[in-house]
Each structure stands twice: as C-alpha cells, then as structure tokens.
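Section 4.2 – Deliverable D4.2 (structural model, holo form)

The reporting period included a commitment to supply a predicted holo structure for the target in complex with nicotinamide-adenine-dinucleotide. Inputs used:
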Amino acid sequence: MTRSISIFGATGSIGDSTLDLIRGDRANWNVVALSANCSAEKLAALAKEFDAEIAVVGDEGCLPELRAHLSGTAIEAAGGEQALCDAARRPADLTVAAIVGCAGLAPTMAAIEQGRTVALANKESLVSAGHVMTAKVAQYGATLLPVDSEHNAIFQCLQGNDLEDVRWITLTASGGPLRTKTLAELDAVTPAQAVAHPNWSMGAKISVDSATMFNKGLEFIEAFHLFPVGLDRLRIVVHPQSVIHSMVEYRDGSTLAQLGPSDMRVPIASALAWPRRMDTACKPLDLPAIGELTFFAPDEERFPATKLAREAAHTGGAAPAVLNAANEVAVAAFLAGQIRFTQISAIVARTLEHYAPTAPQSLDDVLAVDAEARVHAGAMMELA
Ligand code: NAD
Ligand code: MG
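Output (structure tokens):
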C-alpha cells in the first residue's frame, strides 16, 4: 500500500539517506513536503525527482530562487518558519524531522499536534522541549519513532518487553575522532579535525557534537524522554567500532543489543517500515572483518559534555534547553574559527551557571528560553 511522507531537512545528511531509501522503494511512497533552510537548487531538484506537492525553504530570502527553479512545474513553493509549520500540518502518514538544531522544533510540534507519526532525527528539538513535547505527543495521540541510531536500537531492544523490567539502558558512543587526544591536544583541534568522524558521515554540527561528546549528552536527555526508565537507569559506554548501537539490560540479567553497519539508512529504514521491515542496500555486517568489539568508560575530564548534560537532565526544567542553545552557539562559533575546541564545553557550562530561567510550559516558552540562552551564550563567548 502506498504511504505518504514529508521530510523536513530533506537536503541534509539524514534527508539524503531517507530519500535514498525512498528512491529504492519508489512505488510505495508519495512525497508530500520537502524542506531545506536554503539550498534552493538542490531542494527543487529533489522536489521534481520525487514529484513533491510542496517545497519549503526555512529562509524566506531563498524563496525567489526556489520559485525560479520550480517554474513550469505544478510543485508549490513556500518560505519562512510559518510555511514550514503549515507544510508540517499537511496530511502525511510519516513526517521525518531531520532539520538540525532547535530550528526544527516548531515544525515538529506542528506535526505532533496533528497526531502524526514522526520519525525523529532532530534530537535538539526533544532535548529543548522535553516534557512540553512528550505531553503533546500524549495529548494528540502522536507517535515518535526514534531515528537516532542509539535510540532506534533501544526502541528495537524494548519491543515486547516492559519498561519496569529494565535494569539499564546503555547508550554506546564511538568517542568521536578525538577520543584518544590529550587535553592539550584537544585545545589545538581545528574544525576540519573535529568533523572528520571515523565511522559516520554526518552534517557539520552533529560531527562537532560527536567530537565533544555533546552528541552523547544530548542523546542521554533524548533517551530520558523517549524511554522513561528514570535517569539512574541510563548510562553511556564508549565503543569505538560503532557496531553495537545501544543495549538494554533486563532484571533477569539478559542484555539485548542491536548491531548493524554504521549507516544511518538502517535505523531510518526501521522507522520508515515500522512495524514491519524493508530492504536496504546497506553492506551487511561482516563480524570476522571487524574482529574485535571494545568498550571503555567515558572520560569526563577530557570530555565534560556528558557530565554537563547529565546534570542538566537532573536539574530539569529549562536547563536542557539552555544547554542545547549554548552548545549550538558555541559549535557555530567553533566552526567559524572564533573559539577553540575546548571552549565549547566551557561556554555551555558558564551559560548554565548564569542563566537559569523557570521551567517552560509551552512551545513559546521553550522558544523564548532558547532565544535568550543564545544571547547569554554569546555574552559568555565575549568573556572567553
Ligand atoms: P545536516 O546539516 O546535514 O542537514 C540539516 C538539514 O536541516 C538541511 O536540510 C538544512 O537545509 C536544514 N536546516 C538547517 N538549518 C535550518 C533552519 N534554520 N531552518 C530550516 N531548516 C534548516 O544535518 P544532519 O546531519 O542531517 O542532521 C539532522 C538532524 O539529525 C540533527 O538534529 C542531527 O543531530 C540528527 N542526526 C543526524 C545523524 C546523521 O548521521 N547525520 C544521526 C543521528 C541524528
Ligand atoms: Mg546517535
């Protein structure tokens, strides 16, 4: 049976992987909306290839270019934040949330408020909104399918089990490209070194997050909301081969793990086909070629991000949104060559110390905390 799909962040790394799967299973999908921030030429080409109903650019300034590329077609073009939310409200069997950063929050919430099934890659939106988002999911009967490889692994390992029987949920972390560097070496790391991930090919922001371990910190908070077993039953282990994508240990001593190649098409396919399975062109796992799986405890002295995230999760309220916003600002500054690698976590820590707003109760509250935290993080950067 044909299903309809909308993809927000269609021109990014997750967007590419999703559309690659749809391309291979073309007869079964109807594409409703595709979005990008700007990338008008690429977005228009995708909208034409997949015969989308509408293409939307988040940056309204890119709309004239999008219109020009789509002229002579029946595909609608729109631009701006409101247009993203309007597109997210259009009926679709599945909405893929793959915008990077808190910028993806409003369209994701718009889809949730229509009771949609959302394949969630955009972890920053759940980290920032937390209970505001999960409450809306419950209120509108929406479904969140985790696309993040760790959370997709946990989701699969939990099938047929009861959360009450869970002893531990263990998120695996590759440790990123800088795992073995000393603090002094970390201080001198360039953006090019930080984004050169050994196992995964991803967008620039999440690549830096993997290098700082903020990615795992954000994922810790993401897991707390997706799988409510309590913070004390979540832990992180470094596993450089990225073969085990995460695991669940039950009270009888059984540990279930999900293994697979380091290819995001595997977890995305699991969300696309859920609750069934679909074919992918991914290389099968070759365990003899991999040889060894190793595990280490995280080093929170060299990589304080997971500690900061755990503390923010314990503090609750607005703290995770502040942590996320400060990290987005610091990562952008690092990529622009304005701050050193080790300053990223220092700026996040200082922003959390100086800005502790009350707990957000609505989407508008979350967006206000996010905006204000960015200003505070900017000020901390001046001091850095
Ligand atoms: P990316 O940078 O490759 O792509 C981001 C997409 O979002 C692009 O389509 C871009 O045009 C759009 N976008 C960026 N800023 C926007 C804005 N302000 N408004 C509207 N659209 C905007 O990023 P990615 O690597 O594909 O990651 C996307 C999300 O998925 C992130 O939240 C990331 O943490 C998560 N994720 C990614 C991977 C991965 O392997 N790439 C794995 C797990 C989770
Ligand atoms: Mg992940």
